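for ur thesis appendix - Small ribosomal subunit protein uS10m. copy paste whatever u need, i formatted it the way the template wanted (i think)
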Amino acid sequence: MWLYSAISTFFTSKIALRCMPRVQSTLSTSTQTKSEEDNIDKLYKLVELEVRGNDPAVLKSYSYFVNMTAKELDLNIGKCWAPKKAHHERLTLLRSIHVKKKYRTQYEYRTYFSFMQFRKMTGSTASTFLEYIQRNLPEGVALKVAKVELQKLPEHIKQIPQHS
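the 3d part is after this line
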């Protein structure tokens, strides 16, 4: 029996990641003596990537790169899709601050999406794959990762009392 739990992480563009402070952890003696269960590799039922960008050509090229990388690593590729419509944002501003209200300028920007699913991955494979595609993330593209982890049922749930 396995139990599902969802884990979600968010990777932004390379510039934002460079600005984030690096956290260095020190290993204490208590963390060095972990039990055998902690050393077992995690299993993910599903890893879903959401890729966002302003240029559809760059987004399509990056999606192709991610799929080719997954094929080279022999990963189980699930569904890959991109919605037909982009998210539109419009902003209208007055050309002049105080006078001539009917002279306005409109600005618009669009956000395109692409979704990819990968099935049945181990934790080490997933971390290596995600680190590689995140390092090759082009400028102006954001990556969001959602993982569905398989976990064993706790012992107190597994044991069913026998009634006579």
